[in-house]
Every structure is written in C-alpha cells, then in structure tokens.
Amino acid sequence: MIDLNADLGEGFGRWTLTDDEALLSVVTSANVACGFHAGDPSTMRRVCALAAERGVRIGAQVSYRDLAGFGRRAMEVPPDELADEIAYQIGALQVFARAAGSRVSYVKPHGALYNRVVADSEQAEAVVAGVLRAGAVCDGPLPVLGLPGSRLLEVAEGVGLPVVTEAFADRAYTRAGTLVPRREPDAVLHDPEAVIARAVGMARDGLVTAVGGEPVAIDARSLCVHGDTPGAAQLAWRVRGALASAGIRVEAFT
Questions:
Q1: What is the DSSP letter of 188?
Q2: How many CB atoms lie within 10 A of CB 178?
Q3: CATH number attached to the domain at 3-246
Q4: Strand stretches in the chain, DSSP E
Q5: What does residue 35 show for φ and ψ, rounded to 5 degrees?
Q6: Domain segments of the chain: what residues?
Q7: Which keywords label this protein (predicted)?
Q8: How much is the pLDDT for 140?
Q9: CA 104 to mean position of chain CA atoms
C-alpha cells in the first residue's frame, strides 16, 4: 500500500504550470502551493475545491518566500520568522480547504526548504514550530511529509507530530539516500519507463538505484510524481497502473 502525491496549484495570476484537474484524477494526496513559491488565492481555492470533490487529501506545500525563484533558491530566514511564515501558509490554505468542505491534512516543504531541512536542525525546528502554531486552526497536529532519515522528520517525531516518509519516482538519488541536487546533470528522470520501474521498485522492494549504480534502501509511505514535468498526468496514470499490476494498493496515508 502506498500514497501517490503530486505538487499542484503551482501557478500565479495568468501563469499556469501544473495540470491540476488531470492530476487530481490520479493522485491520492495533493501538495498545494500556498502562495510563497507559487499559487495565489484563486488557484488555492480552485485546487482545494477539485481535491475535495474527488476525495483527494489536501496538503500544504510550504516554502521560502521566493516567487521569482520558484522556491528553489537557498535563503537565510531567521527561525522565528520562518516558523511564522510556515504557520501563515498553512492557515491560508486551511481557509480554502474548509470552504470546500475538506481540511489541510498534512504539511510538506518545497524546493530549497525541503532539501535544507534534511540536515539543518535549526531550519527543521523552525518548520516544525510553524506546523505546531498552525495546529489550532487545523484540529490538532498535522502529519509532516519528508525524506526518510531527515532532521525534519526526526524533529517532528520528537515533539509528537505524525511523520510520513516519502520517495521520488522521477528524481536521482545519492548513495546516502538523498536527492541529487537539481543543478547537477540527470538529477531529474525524464524517461517514462525508468520512472515507472523506479516507482514499482520503491513501493514493492523498498529499493532505488543510486547514481553510482548501488541499490539504496528506501522506506517510503508516499510516492511523489512531480506535477511540473511535461506529460505529468499521463505519467502519473501509468505509474498508478504499474503499481496496481504489481499488487500495490494506492491509498492516501491520512
């Protein structure tokens, strides 16, 4: 059994990036941009309404305040300020999730913040503090979605937040089980057959082949297919079909 998630709502104003409607017919969890790296109020409202209609779980995809860089640039944000910005993003999405008859079910960092909190304890603690601050409007502690072995999940688990491990079907991995930085060649996989085979291997066998060719153990409850890659919805359908053929049930973790 595994959850299938994708990043959605990554547009702004007249600019759109993700095929939200098509992806919401495939995934079981939607990581919705909350306005800091992408997204705006109308986009957030529309994605939440579609997700609620289709029974897809709504997650807050929080990030550094970086619209120009799509949240993928390294930034230095004081911990208290970052915690407030995390809480702010979750609260904003909760308004639209509630209006759609649903709720924010989990939190997932995006881009540079996601990678930063793999090893940075201070920033990880700030993200967790923000999740805790938002708990009052989210009916209690929210699960945190992140990379297995990351400081983020360790800190979250330490304060009693539920944690959910995640793997990426379309990203290259290092021997340490971390993601190859996007600035490096072949950090993102574009061959659909390779992505599908990797997804099945992760979900069924708990293994992924690292860049050096070594098998690396991956313990994941959720599998991400990026929504901003060309043909993302069709690829997600193929991944889901391959998982089903391998006897793996696709189901939300919340």
A1: B
A2: 18
A3: 3.20.20.370
A4: 3-8, 29-33, 57-62, 104-109, 144-146, 163-168, 207-209, 215-217, 222-224
A5: 100, -10
A6: 3-246
A7: ATP-binding, Hydrolase, Nucleotide-binding
A8: 86
A9: 13
CA 234, CA 227: separation in Å to the nearest integer? Answer: 11
Q: How far, in Å, are 19, 136, 143, 151, 183 from residue 90 at the CA level?
A: 22, 11, 12, 21, 29
Contacts of 88 (CB under 8 A, 6+ apart): none
What one-character-per-residue DSSP string does 125-185 give? HHHHHHHHHGGGGTTSPPPEEE-TT-HHHHHHHHTT--EEEEEETTB-B-TTSPBPPTTST
Using a 10 angstrom Cβ sphere, with 0-12 exposed, 13-18 middle and 19 or more buried, the burial of residue 227 is buried
Side chain identity at residue 160, one-letter code: G
Residue type, 178: T
pLDDT values of the chain reduced to their tens digit, one per residue, 254 residues: 999 999 999 988 888 888 899 999 999 999 999 999 999 999 999 999 999 999 999 999 999 999 999 999 999 999 999 999 999 999 999 999 999 999 999 999 999 999 999 999 999 999 999 999 999 899 889 999 999 999 999 999 999 999 999 999 999 999 999 999 988 988 999 899 999 999 999 999 999 999 989 999 999 999 998 877 778 899 999 999 999 999 999 999 98
Tokens of 229: 């890659």
What is the C-alpha to C-alpha distance for residues 185 and 7, in angstroms, rounded to an integer? 22
How far are the Cα atoms of 52, 105, 145, 249 from residue 55, in angstroms, in the given order? 5, 12, 19, 16
